[in-house]
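# step 3/5: fold
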Amino acid sequence: MRSRKGLVISLSVIAVMWILHTTSKNFMVDPTFSTFLSNKEIELPNAKLWIAMIQLHIALAIIALMTGPLGLSRAMRMKKPHLHRWNGRIYVMVIVINILPGYYVALYANGGIWSTIGFFILNTLWLLTTINGYRFIRKGQVHRHRSWMLRSFFLAFANLTIYILVTILHYVAGLPYGFSYSLAAWLAFIINLVLAEIVIRKSTI
């Protein structure tokens, strides 16, 4: 019980902190993404469209990070199942919608083709894990539903993992920015899914 409660609280705190950081950075401090675009290695065919798509991508990811911890809450599942279901529907919907801006911004990712492939895999895995979670609850397979939704929610933290990895690889280790970003795009979904599997095996959430 304590481990489950601790997990939900920990993920909630991390989600809130990352939401505050992402919101302030991308919508208040630098809404035109001038700092990020200064590191772009390729020219964008339509910068305004790219900014609109990445803002949509970020906004939808924020909603996923807000609804994710509520979906993991046992108290909500037990005491207010109708809210749990509606919260889950919102979570699934934003991830399904987010596949379009996710793929679009991946086409112009730093690091070239390897980054693009990495982000395509990441976005696809996020969608598939979410769909699997939804599919299993429709079949009444609650345990498998929870496992797949936990994998999905861990992938929702991929941008946080990328941010940490790029900081370590580029700003600390001194590796080229494009290479660091490309490597981070691949390591993010690998690391997050491994962490999810560890939690699934050790937790009763």
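# step 4/5: annotate
The chain has nine helices and no strands.
# step 5/5: archive (pending)
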